[in-house]
Every structure is written in structure tokens, then in C-alpha cells.
User: Fold this.
Amino acid sequence: MELNKQKLQQMANAIRVLSAEAVEKANSGHPGMPLGMADVAAVLFGQYINLYPDAPRWFNRDRFVLSAGHGSMLLYSLFYLLGYPDINIDDIKNFRQLGAKTAGHPEYGNLGGIDMTTGPLGQGISSAVGMALAERKINAKFGDNLCNHYTYVICGDGCLMEGISEEAISLAGLWKLNKLIVFWDNNNITIDGTVDKSNATDQLARFKAVGWNTISINGHNYDEIAAAIEQAQKSDKPTLIACKTTIGYGAPHKEGTSKVHGAPLGAEELALLKENLGWTAESFTVPAEIMASWRAAGQRAAIQYQQWQKSAAQNSEFIKYINNELPENWAVELDELKIKTIKEQTKVATRKASQMCLENLVKYVPQIIGGSADLAASNLTFVDGMQTITAADYSGNNIMYGIREHAMGAIMNGLALHGGVIPYGGTFFVFSDYMRPSMRLAALMGLRVIYVLTHDSIGVGEDGPTHQPIEHLASYRAMPNINVFRPCDVVETAEAWQLAIANEHTPSILALSRQSVPTLRTNADENKTAKGAYIISAASGTPQATIIATGTEVSLAVAAQKQLRNLGIEVNVVSMPCQELFLKQATEYQQAVLGTAPRIAVEAGTTFGWERFVGANSTVLGIDSFGASGKGDEVYEHFGLTADKIAKAVQKFL
Assistant:
């Protein structure tokens, strides 16, 4: 493509000045990266990337992830210059102010052009792998006319140092995601100084080793930038473009130093920057000629968008698919499973119950893509009829992540963000710690991501305390906008799956048991898990106490209820599979379920957090230490979590 270098220089300088001015006005921010990567951004957005500001969520647009999210003003400047309708110059002036769309780091949902929330380093590049995989998956099903686009990323040294990036790029290389193109801002600067003081990795060799195409360029040379993009677009592998840049480019006293990374330039240095760039316009003003060049770039893909609209309109299956519309009768077999389970009194582990649900779900919900971090045989995430995605065939619906929980969490976010995919992924509950940053971002962005987390308690047994999650339930319940389900039997497991699939804006955890549990539910006329808690076994007459339990402990509570009844003590047993949903119910419902009698909570985890449900006149049976190695039932006995101990605790309390 022939380049007008003078025009590109002006366009790049518009990014630089707007970014520096916004950071200066806010007296907060990171001007160094926008100044250094403005030339790359001008070429990419000015001449190559396919976006359409008038339809910012156009499904077949190229995706762009600013993995180095601290440089957010680069993105906001681009959106304003390209003509996105939901951002104006006042938004630029309000950078980093309370309530502004232009937050300190890009926040998904604030502006139509933001493809994901970034800032935690390594998350962006890793989630982009999921986006690129989703593109190939949907392309395999519907073809080039409907899904055929690139995923571009700008990342920095911090993203490449974070361990999650290694996991993700190795999978991208394995899958040959050739439409994934990463620009590395190779400026040799981090917050604390020069990169060579903390890292000597040959990044090009590293990426080559895991199956990437690599290109090294001068990030301020327009010919080299354009040639690298064109070469990358033709590659049969994902591509890393190492852009040698100067951080803070144009700021005479601060460029090339860590001083320009995370602090405003200062009025004097900002004036010198403008002088160096030959910029004479008033503050927050872009000359008409430069603005016209940018607005023309914003309309470059208009015809392509209109053609795609016509093609998409002729394929109703595709439209439903990319909008994640669920088939009309997608949950019919789950309802039948619940009825059958009650009739046959099925006794299985809830991880097995989850697999039974998946056998019915995968057949009816085409957008589902599952996977596991090398634990499918334990998590039971793979069911008959699933096919594993490979570089030779992207049409499958199972992902073998290997032992890469970090990457699995981020890649699932990318799959969900892309659209047309409902991802679930499995590992042991205790190893969800590796995924926690990605899970937090999923909750923050409001994504439908489902975590199948098995071996949920001390019932893990002989693997011992390293594998026994004690604090995890409490820690995830403390996280906003994530539903933590701990079902007690097949029926509750099926209900949890129905809720997780149907909830478009909240990630879900299914904490599932290794040990078998009996079927406790006696009917499945309504989804009782949807209310978070309910009386699963009522007292005969006026209850003298209420036992609240979750998961495998519900069956222990019901057994204790029978023992107490023989002693003339009547209690209600409440199953509380999802605290988050229960807390959303009306106060009257909560009071009716919990009752006014003394309350005893039972859970094979930390007692932390249960005080909100049991109150002052109460007791909690749990584990406020790490677990122990031994047979699961013996470990339960060791920690006093048995029907006998629950019954005795109730007697003592009364």
C-alpha cells in the first residue's frame, strides 16, 4: 500500500498531542506509550484495520486489544479522531475523572470501540488469543463472507514478562492463529527503569520457539510498519511485530526514560513537545485537514460493512449464533434429567452430575465450547460427541488447554468477548487461584463464562491440604458480580447449569464434589436454585432450629435432621446453593427461608462470611485451618463434619 508519510506524521502527532494534553489536564496518566506508539497506531488505524465507528460492535470488524492498558489515551484519542459517536472532545478533557467514559484504563462497556477491559498486564494479549480462536471457530462454521477478520494487539514489556503470556502464546502457536497480530512496544523501559535491569529474554527467539512468525522493525518508520503489517497478514502463523520505539517520543527532556512512563509531562515539557512536532493548534484542537484524514480513515470500511450486512441478513442461523441466542428448547432434556433423577434416586458426585448435564447441553446449544486444564478425566468436562479444536480443524467444541489455568481463564474471556461463543472450562477448585485475575476481569466486564471447578472440599481426601480448597468459596463470594454455585445433588446441578447458561452478564462458578451424594430433591417443578436458598427438608411442625448447608453437607444436614427428629427435636434444613442469588431475593422471602429459630450453618470450608446468614444467636460448623491428607470420609470425621456431630451441635446449641 502506498503511503502518504507526511499525512501519517500529522495523524500520529494528533494522537500524541491529544494524549499528552489529556494526561496533563488530569494531572495523572501514562503519556509515554501513546507518544511512542503513535506512529504504529497511525499506520494501523489509518490504513489497515477494518472498523466502522457508525457500527462499533459490527461483528466482522477487526478486534483491537490495548494490552498495555495504562496507555489508554492512545485508544481514546483514536476513537475521537476516527469519529466514534459516543466520544467527544469533552470526554478527552475529562480523562480519568469520576464518571468519565475515558477511565484510567480502558473499561469494556464505557465506549463502543473498547473490545475488552485492560490494565492488568498480560491479560490483554492472552484474551486476544481467545478472540482469534473464536474468529477461526466461527469462520469454520460460516465461511469467509460472514466471519473473516484480524485480532490486533499492542502490548509492552510488562505484558510479556507476566507469566500468563507464555501460556497463551504457546497455545496460539499450537493452534496456528495466523490472524492474530501483536505489536510489541519495544522501548526498553518499565516503571523502575530500563528493562535490561530485570529481563534479558530474547523475545523474538521466545515467540519463534512456540510457533510464531516474528518481525523486527523501527516503530517510527512508516514503510517498515506497513510492510510488517502486510507480511503478518499473509503469514500462516500468529505474528509478533517487535517495534523499536522511543517512549515519550518528542518530549525532549523525558523521552527514552522511565520519567515519562506514568506521570504528566509538565507544562514546560508539553510546550516543548508541541514545538518539536511543529504543532501550533490551540489546546484540545485538531486542525481540520488532519481531522479530515482521520475521519476518512474511520469510513474506510463502510462499503465492506454494508456488504457484510447484506450477507448476514440472508443467514438467520448466523444472526442467532453470533447474538448467542439460545435455541427454543435448549433446556428440555435438562428438565427431563431432573425428573428422571428424582424417580431413580440417582446417587453420584456433583462433578458427574455436571457431566450428565453437559451431555444434554452440548447437543442443543451450538455456541458452547468446553475445555479443561489437562483434567478432563477428573473434571468430567468432555462428553461424547465433542471434538477437540486443532490447527487443522477449528470446527470442534473442546479445547485441550494443557496445564495452563492462567491462559485458560483469559482465553475464555476472549472467546466470550468475541461473541458467538459460550465458554466453560474446568480445573480443580483449589487451582482456580491461577485463574483468579481472569475471573475477576470476567466479573468486571460482565461476561458469560462458566467455571467447572471440581474437588470442591476436604472430600478430595488423600491429595491433602494442597488440593483441598478451604477459603475459596468465601473468597469468590466476596467478589462482585460472580455467582458461586455449590449444588447438593443432580437436580441442583442441572438448575445451576440452566442459570449459568441463561445469564448473559455474570460469570458462574460450579463448585462440584468428588464424592457421591444422594438425590435430595423431591420435585423439579421450579428452579429453586434460582432463589439461591430454600427449605429442602421441612420440619414436622414448628422448627426449633434451622440448619443451613451447601453442596455435600446438605445430605449430612438431612441425616442429622432425622436423628434429631428421633429425639423429638424438629429442624428445617435449608440448602443454599448460591448466596449471591439469595441475597437478591425480597427480605420477606429471606426471612421465610431462614426462619426465626436459632440457625446453624454447615460447610466444609472457612466459617468466614456465614455470620450474615446465621446472625448472633447462631453457630457455624466449618474449617478454619487447612485440610489434612487421608480418606475423604475420615477427613470429614476428623474435622467434625458428620451427621452425628451436626445433630450434637444442634442439641448443644438448643
Q: What stands out?
A: The chain has a mean pLDDT of 97. The two ends are 82 Å apart (CA to CA). The first helix runs from residue 5 to 26. The longest strand covers residues 180-186.
